[in-house]
Amino acid sequence: MSALGTYLPRLLLAALLGVTAAAAATEYRLDTVAEDLDFPWCVAFLPDGSLLATELGGRLLRIDPDGAAHRSITGVPAVYRASQGGLFDVLLHPDFADNSLLYLSYAEGTPGDNGTAIARARLAGERLHDVTVIFRVASRKDTPVHYGGRLAFLADGTLLATTGDGFDYRESAQDLGSQLGKLLRMNDDGSPAAGNPFPHAPYVWSYGHRNPQGLAIAADGRVWLHEHGPRGGDEVNLIEPGANYGWPAVTHGVDYSGALVSPFSEWPGMTPPQYGWTPSIAPSGLAIYSGALFPEWRGNLFVGALVAREVRRLDLENGQVVGEEALFTELKSRIRDLRTGPDGALYVVTDGPGGRVLKVVPAR
């Protein structure tokens, strides 16, 4: 059976069983860590137990371990704040305990000339020092949407970064001469990493992506990425270097007008998703739970849903999605980000003005 042939029955299974095709519900408690944030996008965990949080408007916050206070960190690069543009991910260097380096992804530029950038800086107290822009997407655009912006380090110390297709530039996702609609791989100084699959496109690791806002590395080294479809066709992809994930040549969604983006949902040489949603849930944030507080969740994918206003837990077996469960529906909030904390809790970031950081712990 083809890869698409295995994908379609999984969609049918999800449709038949709904979003409760997973094991019996786990009892949990939601504790608020921080609230009244302004469009928070991501969190990261510092060695001293405090958290870093980004806000789209350009603030980087340090949140005390008990959540009692949060303080702005100065020295953040200027961001282009418009529509979906702003400050995105914050990611610690793998050797942060020794070098204090962190990475920020963000939108930069002007309405007529903007794109995704990555800066590296050294954190000391409440200030960033030695701030250096190590990478700018070379393919500029005049749309304030579809930036990607998720970051993750591979075990070999190289950095992965997602870029969106810019919406009006969707054909660029199929163009290896463009850095839009790609998963990029670089060294920690922003130079192209050795071993990338396309010598003439030295940063590109995979392509054919629409707007990937979820990126996570499993314990076995597998790279999972999810991306927004148009109307329908949200995808969860298992990434292979050099693979083409199809957008916009193939899709399970249609344009917002109802018109076809493409008549094809599969094509030889294009890699189908491992899982998907139609109608769209608008996925944002992706975590692979690795803590000890919820053994039954270990190794599962947790996907934030902006439109569905909940979290989807995907039960994995041998790299295949075998069940799906809707969680935290009581929040009734757009979910922007998810992370496994060093304390074994699952952290949930809600979107919008009045956004919150919540910690999921066992109910007992």
Quick structural summary:
With 364 residues, the chain is mainly beta. Helices cover 5% and strands 42% of the residues.
What does this structure look like?
The protein is mainly beta and 364 residues long. Helices cover 5% and strands 42% of the residues. Strand 10 and strand 11 form a beta hairpin. The longest helix is centred in the N-terminal third of the chain and has 15 residues, at 3-17. The chain is globular. Mean pLDDT is 93; it is low at 1-23.
Features of this protein?
42% strand, 364 residues, globular, four-stranded antiparallel beta sheet
Helix-strand blueprint:
Elements: H1 3-17, E1 28-38, E2 40-45, E3 51-55, E4 60-63, E5 70-73, E6 87-92, H2 96-99, E7 101-110, E8 113-124, E9 127-136, E10 151-153, E11 159-162, E12 182-186, E13 204-207, E14 212-217, E15 223-227, E16 234-239, E17 275-277, E18 283-288, E19 301-305, E20 310-317, E21 320-327, E22 335-340, E23 346-350, E24 353-362
Antiparallel strand pairs: 1-24, 2-3, 3-4, 4-5, 6-7, 7-8, 8-9, 10-11, 11-12, 12-13, 14-15, 15-16, 16-17, 18-19, 19-20, 20-21, 22-23, 23-24
